[in-house]
Amino acid sequence: MYVAVKGGERAINNAHRLLAEQRRGDKKVAEIQTDQIEQQLSLSVTRVMAEGSLYDRDLAALAIKQGRGDLIEAIFLMRAYRTTLPRFAFSKPIKTAEMDVSRRISATFKDLPGGQILGPTFDYTHRLLDFTLMANGEELLDAPSGDQPVDEHMPRVLDDILNDEGLIQDEPVPGDDTAPVADLTREPIKFPAGRDLRLQNLSRGDEGFVLALGYSTQRGYANSHAFVGEIRYGTVSVEIEPEELGFAIDIGDIELTECETVNKFKGSKTKLPQFTRGYGLVFGQNERKAISMALVDRAMRADEMGEQIMGPAQDSEFVMEHSDNVQSTGFVEHIKLPHYVDFQGELELVRRMRTEVEERLAKLEAESAQSQPEAAE
Amino acid sequence: MTAHTARTDGPGQDQNPTHQNKTAPVDQATAARQRWMSVLARTPRASLEARWAASYGDQKWSMLREPQIGMVMVRGRAGGAGQRFNLGEMTVTRCAVTLSDGTVGHSYVKGRDRLQAQYAALFDAIMLRDGSASDFIDDLAAAQAEAKRDHARKVAATKVDFFTLVRGEDE
């Protein structure tokens, strides 16, 4: 039951002013600018864009500043903002094969065409705190350049190398490639969910949740041992075909991280064994999320592969209904909001039940007091 | 297709389009337009604004469609080449302008900069009308290619050169 209650207005206004003051922090410290966040906290920006499901670096930086660095709060702000905008078009499917890579590695082939390109990575760092960053002593940095740029079109490990021998299953393209694509922003999720819906859900899903599920598949809560066939991070151009033009135009570049896993093979007495695949694709630079997504995508293909469901990561309904952190935080946190009337009802019920039990106990006691003297005789 | 795309007297028609649309073959004029629209979409507002003021400040034009901020749903394919899926949205600004002779220019650019979209549409119209901004477009394209190449060289410096350590006692 909901009952309107008034009286909190002044307290709420003051609470928000206190919040603003605390967000700003000590006024002797320079105020952080959104362009500084956009440039120097770029992996936070990346996460907010991916899970906010809206690629806009400036807006993500603003959301992070407004949310005091609480990324889920920032993601919530992005989600709210996107509902105010019209959707002009769907892009043509982006071509990750044509990505301008900043990083590209394979854990399955050491010597592969195009090479192992490390790019800007935390891998192989010692994870020791660098106190020069705190002392503002960092010198202007300039990374060294190679003589030649990296190859423009890196071959793909799964499609161009493994599949050359037919060792990995094809990515099936449905017969009708113009068929509608599921969109969870317009239609409620229904089960069983197709792979299109599952991939959309995972790409905007909470990084921690998808990471934990991915980890669970490695610890035995799914039957799909994975190798990282390839990870690539870089920029791709986005093309749309506006009706008024009638031809495709390129509207700019976005950064993406893509991960393709090579998983446990499948075959039978009559069918040649083949490796299977998992796919991860996220906005920005986020390898942890892309790998986790690929692990969970593969685990959720259990039905299609005829595998026994033995862990939560294989259960699409469980995964998809709990992956969204805005939805989760909304329901988890709503229980802190006033439930005075609900609780009043519960309170009265418990009091009434207690009275009933007390009365019954008193009656029993009286009865036994009456019968005891007889028993003593 | 608009009337403008059917023109064949546009400039730059013999240049190689950088982003050829593979699903439907396009004529040379359209390919040239795709190229300059792609270059303009990647050019910050300040460069467009400065060049417009310097070379076309006295042009008469009107707004056909005010700059409007919206979104494009970006699509990917499972495994890079399989079933399509909706990855997430990106902000996009579009605009359409009309020059005094009736030439209509369009723009769709990433982000939320209304003025960038307006100038991109204006330069699209100029290119359709007489191609007089083709040097400007070429310079922008060259600068963009240079920046991309510089980055690609820095990335190339992170390529692993594997070598094998010789072990054992040969001598």
From TrEMBL, chain A:
<dbReference type="InterPro" id="IPR008773">
    <property type="entry name" value="PhnI"/>
</dbReference>
<dbReference type="GO" id="GO:0016829">
    <property type="term" value="F:lyase activity"/>
</dbReference>
<protein>
    <submittedName>
        <fullName>Carbon-phosphorus lyase complex subunit PhnI</fullName>
    </submittedName>
</protein>
<dbReference type="Pfam" id="PF05861">
    <property type="entry name" value="PhnI"/>
</dbReference>
<dbReference type="GO" id="GO:0019634">
    <property type="term" value="P:organic phosphonate metabolic process"/>
</dbReference>
<keyword id="KW-0456">Lyase</keyword>
From TrEMBL, chain B:
<dbReference type="Pfam" id="PF06754">
    <property type="entry name" value="PhnG"/>
</dbReference>
<feature type="compositionally biased region" description="Polar residues">
    <location>
        <begin position="13"/>
        <end position="23"/>
    </location>
</feature>
<dbReference type="GO" id="GO:0015716">
    <property type="term" value="P:organic phosphonate transport"/>
</dbReference>
<dbReference type="GO" id="GO:0019634">
    <property type="term" value="P:organic phosphonate metabolic process"/>
</dbReference>
<protein>
    <submittedName>
        <fullName>Phosphonate metabolism protein PhnG</fullName>
    </submittedName>
</protein>
<dbReference type="InterPro" id="IPR009609">
    <property type="entry name" value="Phosphonate_metab_PhnG"/>
</dbReference>
<feature type="region of interest" description="Disordered">
    <location>
        <begin position="1"/>
        <end position="31"/>
    </location>
</feature>
